[in-house]
Amino acid sequence: MSRDRQTATVRVRVMVEVTLNARWGSDCTIGQVHDQGTREAVAHVQGRLATATGVRVLEATACDMVVRSEDKP
């Protein structure tokens, strides 16, 4: 008696949120914070996935920022 063998490949996209608690100097622009923060978040995730097979970072599409000023009047 023969048995049919079935295989399947599944590709799933998963959204991951990464929070970076970093400090940037007062001379940094919002654009610099956005670009550097995005690069650091992607590098963080890629580092964690380095040994995983079939997993990779496709894109980073959103960057929310909270900017606080610690200057005293």
What are the secondary-structure elements, in order, as H or E?
H
The pLDDT mean sits at 85
Distance between the termini: 85 Å
The proportion of residues forming helix, as a percent range, comes to 25-40%
Principal-axis shape equals rod-shaped
Would you tell me the structural class of the helices and strands?
mainly alpha
Low-confidence stretches: none
Radius of gyration: 20 Å
Number of helices: 1
Portion in strands: under 5%
Please outline the major beta sheet. Answer: none
Secondary structure: number of strands: 0
Give an overview in words.
This protein is an all-alpha fold. The chain contains one helix and no strands. The protein has one helix at 30-48. The longest helix is centred in the middle third of the chain and has 19 residues, at 30-48. The protein is rod-shaped and about 80 Å long.
Task: Offer a quick outline of the entry.
With 73 residues, the chain is mainly α. The protein has one helix spanning 30-48.
Topology:
Layout: H1 30-48
Relevant terms:
73 residues, mainly alpha, 1 helix, 0% strand
